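Researcher: Let's do a round of design. I'm pasting the structure tokens now; please hold your answer until I've finished.
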């Protein structure tokens, strides 16, 4: 085969997945059929090229192929990712989703950043309507509406459904939605803490909200199916482990649990 033409030059038009295989390799047969199926499902987003290592030893040596099956992803003439071995379909799909270049993903990240820094939600909503397959966009909207419009956030999550890759983020948002919808019961002291925390969250005062949530944990961490504890953990995850407030309150929260 003409590797330069069929892989290198073609990769400037669209990503090319190269399957290094051989007819005598059993795992290669399994992996090859899965890759062919995924290529059909991709609707032209990338192209599969199967390269028999026995017939193309020079190419195999050039790219350091020491064992097969070996898969490499080429984009604009370069290898940008790869894996070795016959891994399951769901793992291959995750690998493709994470590594296949997609200009939409770059645009989405800019819109999410603009949402976080400038509270610009309209453009992101338009983008998500046109690109519902990009789950990150839907989850960004759900997070945005969690404190101001929890019902709307919940509806977005219902559309997303069960997504194992994003399960932690989905569960965190749902925990915070539950906090925003918490109804008053007989334990007025802890309810007042949670109600005040909700008010602070609506105004994006996460510092005060965390302070109140941890106070609620100290009163009764098991209240309402551990709502104070789970809400605090969820807020840490939404903010991010490296966020100043997460760093500030993490130790105090851990101490409150014991």
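Researcher: That's everything. Go ahead.
Model: Designed sequence:
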């Amino acid at each position: 085969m003409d590797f330069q033409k069929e892989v290198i030059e073609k990769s400037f038009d669209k990503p090319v997945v190269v399957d290094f295989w051989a007819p005598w390799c059993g795992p290669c047969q399994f992996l090859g059929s899965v890759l062919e199926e995924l290529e059909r499902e991709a609707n032209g987003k990338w192209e599969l090229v199967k390269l028999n290592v026995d017939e193309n030893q020079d190419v195999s040596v050039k790219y350091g192929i020491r064992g097969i099956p070996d898969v490499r992803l080429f984009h604009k003439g370069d290898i940008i990712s790869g894996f070795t071995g016959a891994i399951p379909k769901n793992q291959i799909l995750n690998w493709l989703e994470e590594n296949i270049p997609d200009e939409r993903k770059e645009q989405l990240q800019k819109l999410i950043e603009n949402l976080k820094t400038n509270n610009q939600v309209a453009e992101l909503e338009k983008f998500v309507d046109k690109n519902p397959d990009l789950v990150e966009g839907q989850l960004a909207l759900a997070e945005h509406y969690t404190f101001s419009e929890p019902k709307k956030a919940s509806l977005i999550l219902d559309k997303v459904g069960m997504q194992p890759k994003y399960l932690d983020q989905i569960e965190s948002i749902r925990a915070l939605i539950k906090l925003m919808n918490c109804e008053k019961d007989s334990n007025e002291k802890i309810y007042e803490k949670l109600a005040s925390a909700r008010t602070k969250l609506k105004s994006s005062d996460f510092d005060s909200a965390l302070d109140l949530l941890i106070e609620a944990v100290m009163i009764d961490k098991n209240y309402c199916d551990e709502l104070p504890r789970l809400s605090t953990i969820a807020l840490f995850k939404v903010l991010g482990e490296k966020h100043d407030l997460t760093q500030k309150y993490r130790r105090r929260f851990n101490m409150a649990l014991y």
